[in-house]
TrEMBL record:
<dbReference type="InterPro" id="IPR003593">
    <property type="entry name" value="AAA+_ATPase"/>
</dbReference>
<keyword id="KW-0547">Nucleotide-binding</keyword>
<dbReference type="InterPro" id="IPR030679">
    <property type="entry name" value="ABC_ATPase_HisP-typ"/>
</dbReference>
<keyword id="KW-0029">Amino-acid transport</keyword>
<keyword id="KW-1003">Cell membrane</keyword>
<dbReference type="Pfam" id="PF00005">
    <property type="entry name" value="ABC_tran"/>
</dbReference>
<feature type="domain" description="ABC transporter">
    <location>
        <begin position="10"/>
        <end position="244"/>
    </location>
</feature>
<dbReference type="InterPro" id="IPR003439">
    <property type="entry name" value="ABC_transporter-like_ATP-bd"/>
</dbReference>
<dbReference type="InterPro" id="IPR017871">
    <property type="entry name" value="ABC_transporter-like_CS"/>
</dbReference>
<comment type="similarity">
    <text>Belongs to the ABC transporter superfamily.</text>
</comment>
<dbReference type="InterPro" id="IPR050086">
    <property type="entry name" value="MetN_ABC_transporter-like"/>
</dbReference>
<dbReference type="InterPro" id="IPR027417">
    <property type="entry name" value="P-loop_NTPase"/>
</dbReference>
<keyword id="KW-0813">Transport</keyword>
<dbReference type="GO" id="GO:0005886">
    <property type="term" value="C:plasma membrane"/>
</dbReference>
<dbReference type="GO" id="GO:0016887">
    <property type="term" value="F:ATP hydrolysis activity"/>
</dbReference>
<keyword id="KW-0472">Membrane</keyword>
<dbReference type="GO" id="GO:0005524">
    <property type="term" value="F:ATP binding"/>
</dbReference>
């Protein structure tokens, strides 16, 4: 497994997670290769977000192993902070620092965590803001931006850390419908550039267009793990058929 071509970017082995009596992750074992875009689908309460949040230990696990590029995810401390800085995260709520400008929001991680010089961090931040289409907003504060703009800034902030993988936990669910596509467009372009991504979403169009792989969850377990075409045209399980008929039937 030493060859970097075969070490998966993310591997989860026999991961278990409970909230009290609720078994939210049931013996999850998956490998995600470098550059793969994995979309996690499933009904509410199926464990999708929990799965996503365990990958950078925002949620601790009860048992099992999670590795990033072969390195075991530590429970806490400096090693966790270092590994976590390689794993970007974009949340439902944008989690930007309200009292800092957009540019400051994007430069903060690289200067504080990666010890990049202010000048280099700013140069890179401006490139990223341009890439996500919000350069003109660089001196504004988050509250002055639309939800879609804030989420694009959150993606730029994640990219500024030069992560190996980015996790997206329902990144468009808090947005007005007309803002969803501007965020998904940025995500599609990232996918095409080869960023390793794990995306929990209800956006079926994005799942069909950008995913290399669909993981469908129900009741804390992985029910299907397949390519988008197979999943959307010929789901194997009753749970997936039921889910798709409800989602696509509207």
């Amino acid at each position: 497994m030493n060859d970097s071509n075969v070490t998966p970017m993310i591997s989860m082995t026999h991961v278990q997670k409970h909230y009290g009596d609720l078994h939210v992750l049931q013996d999850i074992t998956i490998e995600i290769p470098r550059g793969q875009v994995v979309v996690v689908l499933g009904p509410s309460g199926s464990g999708k977000s929990t799965l996503c949040r365990t990958i950078n230990r925002l949620e601790p696990i009860d048992s099992g192993e999670i590795r990033i590029e072969g390195e075991l995810l530590p429970a806490e401390g400096k090693d966790l902070a270092r590994l976590r800085s390689d794993v970007g995260m974009v949340f439902q709520s944008f989690n930007l620092f309200a009292h800092k400008t957009i540019l400051q929001n994007v430069t903060m991680g690289p200067t504080k965590v990666r010890k990049v010089s202010s000048a280099d961090a700013e140069k890179h931040a401006l490139e990223l803001l341009d890439r996500v289409g919000v350069t003109k907003q660089k001196d504004k504060y988050p509250a002055q931006l639309s939800g879609g703009q804030q989420q694009r800034v959150a993606i730029a902030r994640s990219l500024a850390m030069d992560p190996k993988v980015i996790l997206f936990d329902e990144p468009t669910s808090a947005l007005d419908p007309e803002m969803v596509s501007e965020v998904l467009d940025v995500m599609v372009s990232l996918a095409r550039e080869g960023m390793t991504m794990v995306v929990v979403t209800h956006e079926m169009g994005f799942a069909r267009k950008a995913a290399d792989r669909i993981i469908f969850m129900a009741d804390g377990a992985i029910v299907e793990d397949t390519d988008p075409e197979s999943f959307f045209t010929a789901p194997k399980s009753e749970r997936a058929r039921d889910f798709l008929s409800k989602i696509l039937g509207h």
